[in-house]
Amino acid sequence: MAQHFLLSAEARKLSLIKIARMNDFQAIAAFRQVRWFETKGKPVCPCCGSGGKIYFIASRKQFKCKECASFFSVTSGTVFHGNKLPLQTILAAIAIFVNAAKGISALQLSRDLDVQYKTAWVLLHKIRESLMDYDSSRPFQGVVEMDGVYVNGYIRPRNKLEKRRLN
Question: In this structure, is the dihedral angle defined by the CA atoms of residues 105, 108, 109 and 114, taken in order, positive or negative?
Fold first, then answer.
């Protein structure tokens, strides 16, 4: 029987203590590995789709594509695009969300990350939104483990006039 993902070595690569000790460039490298896992962390331009002539501008923490002359970052084209939080905070939010067995509240996340409640609430919704982006027509491959998480919530039944109690 396969072991649970959270017990595997792959899950331990992105622990909270490692995220807390990361500098900006290590956080960018971690995001690169997750974002462009098909190319093993080699960036692909979101504008033209080219992966050949792309270089990193360290002072701006952005990439530039030589083919279309566009600038992009590791969060361009994702749900985290335009977010002003440091990458370490976003990575920590993802790690806390993934490691929480029964989910996490925005209030708890705001305390853990030392951010405002609304910021934590938006981060949680962006993470949940990214879970919904999967193309369900494409089958999973490899070892697939299922766990219970409620993403959409409860749909309230319609209020029928004949079932109302009038006093």
Answer: positive
Q: Determine the number of helices (DSSP H) and then strands (DSSP E) in the chain.
A: 5, 3
What is the C-alpha separation between 29 and 134, in angstroms, rounded?
A: 23
Whose structure tokens read 């690569």? 13
Q: Model confidence at 122, in pLDDT bands (50, 70, 90)?
A: very high
Whether 65 contacts 72, CB under 8 Å: yes
Rounded Cα distance, 100 and 89, in Å: 16
**Cβ-based neighbour number of residue 74 at 10 Å:** 24
Query: Which residues does 10 contact at the CB level (< 8 Å), separation at least 6?
Result: none
- Indicate yes or no: pTM above 0.85: no
Q: Is the C-alpha dihedral spanning 142, 145, 149, 152 positive or negative?
A: positive
